[in-house]
Task: inverse folding
């Protein structure tokens, strides 16, 4: 087992929870107390025999020592503490690991606080842009100053002139009253402008997409209850006809849903439309067969198991109704994948075909993205596949999907490292690109990436292009057909990468787009300097 700064900390916490001294536990393990002390302080690796013995003595599942969950938490806390907000502080990685192991609730609270800070910071930036550029606000500001000046002038005249006639005094007061009413309207208009929909007290919560991503990560992207429901649902359907016919027949028979394929003359903005009142589902002819089957399975799940998804969509990550709704949608998508790609059959095929995505597409009639998603859900404790990470990015570098079981740190805020194969895949559309990458901490990963294009409903509807990256720790790379012929240990084949520019302390990176963490700057000044520094240089 690889040495990890998290395992010793977790071992120490579990020992203390059981009220055992180091001497007591060492005696039961058959090792010296000094050696156990080295294990707890991460100076020795915990071997498999010791791990199994520990699980028996401490009466815990061996998976308790898995660094995966803590690794994800450590990555997010590290991401937080590398923000310029903390540029004067230096946080040791071991201290962060200890905090994640011994105070996960405190780490979650810190993450929530930072989420709120980033959200507020974003709102302030947006507000600043609106205030400086919006003509409506500029006009309101001018009217505000004019009205205040008018009211002040009229009031001073009435106040300073005792000999003012009653008629004139009344006229000036009428002006003050009218301008005051206009002032009230202008202020209300400006407050409505500043405090619009984007600036509510709910903005401190993470977005529904981020919340669902955290929820799925916390469950390791495996939901046994949904797997069981998909298996039982499949057993009730016919097997002698195509999936499309099977699912359409089920919808008609059990839910009175009529399925119709329509061209863009009937609808030209959505690939699917379902009318709950009239029980009518319209599917666009532009959808490929894999997408048709997926959407039919999706609707079957929505109609057959709404209570199941609602029961599962519960957790501290889902902080509001919008996040819960998004989570239910994600779980329904999980059901569709579980139905179309049965767990045991799919895992067997994946291992036999060495995770060849294109061959899996042919065998199961699924899309490239569907296969990639399903591969990341093969995390059943008793029978699991390779721990993988998955990232989806658009052309602008916005990450719209992220999950990591491999240990790869995926940035929560901002774009990822431009050296990741995820981004270079856009240079060769439709071609699978492999990469061996090395993080600043020495961790190595094997990843592949390929672009996918969502179906278009016609020439006037712009296509959506994404890059999807799937990968694992380099120790598992030999299980993937894409690593064949690559020297997994040769330095020349390894690409040095980071998480994101502001978290990466690699010197002399030509693709740096932001300054490195402040803690690393003092060590990055060479004796010789580049007289034409790049954008991220300082």
Result:
């Amino acid at each position: 087992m690889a040495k990890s700064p998290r395992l010793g900390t977790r071992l120490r916490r579990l020992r203390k929870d059981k009220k055992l001294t180091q001497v007591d536990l060492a005696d039961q393990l058959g090792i010296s107390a000094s050696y156990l002390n080295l294990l707890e302080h991460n100076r020795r690796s915990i071997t498999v025999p010791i791990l199994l013995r520990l699980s028996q003595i401490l009466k815990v599942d061996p998976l308790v020592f898995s660094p995966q969950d803590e690794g994800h938490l450590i990555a997010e806390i590290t991401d937080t503490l590398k923000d310029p907000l903390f540029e004067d502080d230096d946080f040791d990685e071991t201290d962060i690991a200890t905090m994640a192991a011994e105070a996960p609730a405190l780490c979650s609270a810190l993450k929530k606080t930072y989420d709120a800070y980033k959200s507020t910071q974003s709102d302030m930036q947006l507000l600043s842009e609106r205030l400086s550029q919006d003509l409506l606000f500029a006009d309101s500001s001018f009217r505000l100053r004019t009205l205040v000046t008018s009211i002040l002038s009229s009031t001073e005249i009435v106040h300073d002139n005792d000999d003012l006639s009653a008629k004139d005094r009344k006229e000036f007061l009428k002006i003050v009253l009218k301008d005051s009413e206009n002032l009230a309207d202008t202020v209300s208009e400006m407050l409505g402008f500043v405090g619009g929909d984007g600036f509510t007290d709910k903005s401190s919560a993470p977005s529904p997409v981020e919340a669902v991503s955290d929820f799925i990560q916390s469950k390791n992207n495996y939901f046994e209850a949904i797997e069981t429901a998909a298996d039982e649902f499949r057993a009730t359907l016919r097997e002698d006809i195509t999936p499309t016919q099977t699912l359409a027949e089920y919808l008609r028979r059990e839910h009175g849903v009529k399925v119709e394929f329509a061209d863009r003359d009937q609808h030209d903005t959505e690939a699917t439309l379902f009318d709950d009142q009239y029980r009518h589902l319209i599917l666009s002819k532009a959808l490929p067969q894999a997408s048709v089957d997926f959407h039919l399975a999706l609707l079957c799940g929505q109609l057959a198991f709404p209570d199941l998804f609602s029961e599962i969509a519960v957790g501290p990550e889902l902080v509001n109704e919008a996040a819960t709704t998004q989570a239910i949608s994600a779980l329904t998508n999980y059901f569709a994948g579980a139905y179309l790609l049965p767990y045991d059959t799919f895992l067997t095929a994946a291992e036999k075909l060495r995770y060849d995505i294109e061959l899996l597409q042919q065998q199961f009639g699924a899309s490239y993205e569907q296969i990639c998603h399903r591969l990341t859900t093969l995390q059943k404790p008793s029978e699991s596949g390779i721990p993988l990470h998955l990232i989806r990015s658009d052309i602008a570098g916005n990450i719209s999907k992220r999950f990591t079981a491999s240990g790869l740190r995926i940035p929560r805020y901002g774009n990822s490292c431009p050296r990741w194969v995820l981004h270079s895949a856009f240079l060769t559309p439709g071609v699978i690109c492999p990469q061996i990458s090395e993080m600043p901490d020495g961790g190595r990963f094997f990843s592949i990436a390929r672009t996918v294009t969502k179906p278009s409903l016609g020439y006037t509807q712009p296509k959506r292009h994404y890059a999807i990256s799937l990968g694992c720790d380099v120790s598992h790379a030999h299980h993937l057909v894409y690593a064949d012929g690559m020297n997994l240990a040769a330095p020349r084949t390894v690409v040095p990468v980071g998480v994101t520019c502001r978290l990466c302390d690699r010197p002399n990176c030509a693709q740096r787009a932001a300054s490195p963490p402040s803690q690393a700057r003092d060590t990055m000044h060479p004796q010789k300097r580049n007289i034409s520094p790049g954008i991220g240089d300082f």
User: Anything to note?
Assistant: The CA atoms of residues 257 and 278 lie 8 Å apart. The chain has four domains: 7-105, 134-194, 210-258+286-340, 397-521. The radius of gyration is 30 Å. Confidence is low (pLDDT under 50) at residues 1-5, 197-203.
